[in-house]
Structures are given as C-alpha cells and as structure tokens.
Amino acid sequence: MSEVNAKKSRSEIMTTVVNVLKIILTVIAAILLVILFTGIICFGAFGLYVRSELAPLADIDIGTINMNYTSTVTYLTDNGEG
Hints:
Elements: H1 2-58
C-alpha cells in the first residue's frame, strides 16, 4: 500500500514540477515578447527621426558623387611571377 502512495506522490511531484516549468517558460516568453516589441518601436522611432531630422541636414546629392574609382591589385608568387 505504501508503494502505491509513493508512486502517487511521485506522480503528483512530477505534475507539480511540469506545471511550475510551464509557468516559468510562459513568464520568460512574455518578457522576450515585451523586449522584442519595445525594440521594434524604438528602432522605428529612430528611423523616423533619422529620415525626418538628420537626412535633410546631410546635404548629400548622390548624382554629384564621382564613382570612377578603380583599383589595381598586383601580386608576386613564390617564383617571382606576377
């Protein structure tokens, strides 16, 4: 009879442990979601600030930038050939 009670109490303990772990995981998931949405809102607000306040002050005209830059890379092998 005591073995049945021991098995029952082990089962109850396991059920309690699983329930506590569910609660902990739910709390962690909620915290992560709050952090995620807070980050999205902050990055969105920063993007709006850059677009509306900083971009007009930059005075960059992409049409006037000279893009005719070239590079030449030379090398020598161990035999002295290049």
